[in-house]
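Box 3.1 A note on notation
Throughout this textbook, protein chains are presented in two layers. The first layer is the amino acid sequence; the second is a token string describing backbone geometry. Keep the layers aligned when reading.
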Amino acid sequence: MRRLLTFCGVLFGCLLSLPLHAAELAIVPPKVTLTGPTAQQQLLAVEQDATAVALADRTATVTWTSSDPGIVRVDASGMLTPVRDGIAQITAQFEGRRTQIPVTVEQSTTPQRWSFTQHVQPILTRLGCNSGACHGALAGKGGLKLSLRGYDSESDHFVITRQAQSRRINGLEPAKSLLLLKGARRIPHGGGTRLEAESREDRILTEWIAQGAPAARPNEATVAKLDVFPKAMRGKPGDKFRVIVQARMSDGHTEDVTGWVRFGSSEDQVATVDEDGQVTVAGNGEAAITVVYGSFVATVPMVSPFPNAIAADVFRNAERRNAIDPLILTKLQELNLPPSPPCDDATFIRRVFLDVAGILPTPSEVQQFLADSRPDKRAKLIDALLERPEYVDYWTYKWCDLLLVSTRKLQPPAMWAYYRKVRSSVEANQPWDRFARDILTATGSNLEQGGGNFYLLHTDVAELTESMAVTFLGMSITCARCHNHPLERWTQDQYWSLANLFSRVTMKNGQQPGEVHLSAADSGDVLHPRLNRAMPPTPLDGKPLPLNAESDRRAYFVDWLTAKDNPYFAKAIVNRVWRAMMGRGLVEAEDDLRETNPPSNPALFQALSADFVASQFDVKQLIRTIANSAAYQRSSIPLPGNAADDRFYSRYLVRRLSAEVTLDAFAAVTNVPTPFTHVYNGVENQLAATGNYPLGLRALQLPDSRVASPFLETFGRPLREQTCSCEREADSSVGQALHLNNNQSLNQKLRAPNSRLNRWLADNRPPAEIVRELFAWTLHRAPTERERREFEAELTAATTPQARREALEDLTWAILTSKEFLFNH
């Protein structure tokens, strides 16, 4: 175990034993400066613990006072307004307790200059004027088109102040401006009433117009950071909290922007939030209250512990197999979720075979493991599985899904070269950073440098950029192609700066079928569609590369991507592997990493990612670490107190086997291989015979998603058309049930003359022995007394060879289509 992860485990293990401090009354923000005559700031009075987690909101029940109302006033709701320059103390009193904060007033006599970008556009966004359903739509509404959520300030200012002969504003009589009259619906407006008369928003817009409706000034302060208060909340269903947001500006002053941000909740079943930031606890669990303001985003955790009665020693005595476990136990204790006990050895061997290698263990492997008395036998089994060829098959298939290995867009020689690159990398346990570098900087023949086929799949620069982001950063930036991302901080400018890193890849046809030669050109840029100019090639949040730089831009990007301090690269693959092993990503979905979708266990995510980097990006070591944890080895059987948990790993999450694993399992149990004799060629559903896949090849060894298989298609095999985890269908369906009943995928295996079933019958084995063997091959356990009695009775009642064969086929079918077989548990 790596030193960093071990340290974090010890640290969080110690935190389990720390006592909770008594709640104290506090005011947030803890310090306020009001800048300008129109500044205002909402204060909150909260009960908080020693870690500044808000336990109750007392804002409406405390008594607010100002030490000098001649400097700053505070009303009964906790709202501050400036009077004159100076410093005063604001006090909150509640049930005999009091707390206070200093408030500074400055520039109270300086005339307020409203900003188009910092005040007008946020107001229009809050009112919904530039939303996709209103004037932010692609074609606008009613002859007025604004940029979606205000991403193009220059254009919006022109549209509002100059377009349509400037009739939307009235500088001589601002209150009669069409912008205000329509918003307040003093004249007909299809969008209804958006602007309340005499409201703060109405006053700001009116004063801005009276000031000449100026555009953004070159030197005006811009938002540098958002501060959200309280920093965290903990409550029970029915509790209410208020969230406020401060914008910290580039010149150092702050503004209360609570009224102009967009609030949301990551889990409405746990907590809801209205447009004013009023949070209501709706259930138990954890939710992130999200805040979006322009291109800035922030989150606040809301924890609602489960109402379980848990003995004090449950967490203290819980098993810790490695440093993952204290981090998970800390979260479980915070949520009051009891951890399930460890699974038994029979369950573990089946589980780990499926999760690490995608195969079922044989009865002899199960017996040998159960008979092993060594205390470290589970760790040794994990090590052995990681060295098996089936491990290579399984994880090669996973990464081929991710990288879209298929003849859908690639000619067969190119597809095979791509597949061989992926497989050889898995087999050699190539570090993930080197694997990414090989693919993204590939040069030369795509048949020799198989990773170069990544570029053949994505010949459009925008599509390439988006696919790269999902593959190696675990995030979708597609929205930013046309406008600033609505749920992330990525802007359209950042998108096209990133895309320009991939604009100089040239491709020329080679001499062999399917061959293309890739090279880095020394010229060529992709243009920003709105600005109609090339953006400096820049990684996300990275440093720009000069437009005239002669080096391969891709190499510059990969240096940024694989740097040890890159905040996205390691987390993306760690989250994918964690989900594959644990059934749910620390961030779900696995390719939706964004600030407004925070991890269910941030401390674990950070520690595990840091450990992955410290291991030199060793994927096999990451799998080993997860599989050796007590969290992975917990029972899947829910306790009364954790049955509702599907996010925090208090138990192993049961999940359906993938299509390929299921089909291979059918073949393994019956000892009848699956023939793969046709591929889809050209037009979808047009089949062509192929001899590329000899009998005995397993589904997990197929390189191409275009190999025809009704079973794989019905049970959710992805088409490998788009880089998205959503391509694989993991849910059960009526179609799958019908397929198992009527299709020949399973029935032919059960009836095959050379099947394991027919061999048992040919050997004239007694019913008791057949039943024991059947359960050993399928469920890897002995039958219960009831199962043994009923199965033996069915076989004994069959008096003819055909009846006996049909009875065994039916019994085997019943097991192979049962939840116990089709799910990993």
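The longest helix spans residues 412-427. The CA atoms of residues 399 and 422 lie 7 Å apart.
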